[in-house]
Amino acid sequence: MDQDERKKESKIEKLPLETRRLIFWIVLIISAAVLVVVWIFSLNLSLSIKPSDASEDVRLEKIKSDLKIFFQTTGEGLQELKNQFSGDDQSTSTVATTSQEIIPSLPN
After folding, report:
1. pLDDT tens-digit profile of 14-56?
2. Which of 76, 75, 95, 72 lies closest to 85 in space, CA to CA?
3. DSSP code per residue over 18-82
4. What is the predicted pLDDT for the residue at 56?
5. Hey, what's the torsion of the CAs at 95, 96, 98, 100, to 10 degrees?
6. What is the pTM of this model?
7. Top-confidence residue, 88 or 54
8. Which contiguous run of DSSP H or E holds residue 101?
9. What are phi and psi of 64, to 5 degrees?
10. pLDDT value of residue 1
11. What is the largest CA-CA distance in the chain?
């Protein structure tokens, strides 16, 4: 019966334990190397500049300039508010006039 079981074993199972361990490590190293090569190739493709990226650059530059204008405008508005609360007469009259024009147009 021992011989029947021995016949059912695969060729790898018939090899000595040290040989099987060596085969395991070789397969593991080759698999890892293939995985790293595929990953580097994929990374290279994903980082390459495509022609469609140029239009995205233009959009990003527009967004950047819009944000810069927004922050400048916000800073000017904050400065006007600071001047109004500090008692500066020039900006107080301008803001008051603007506020007087806005208040009647607000919904009740």
Report:
1. 999 999 999 999 999 999 999 999 999 998 888 876 666 667 7
2. 95
3. HHHHHHHHHHHHHHHHHHHHHHHHHHHHHHSPPTTHHHHHHHHHHHHHHHHHHHHHHHHHHHHHH
4. 75
5. 160
6. 0.39
7. 54
8. helix 89-102
9. -60, -45
10. 46
11. 109
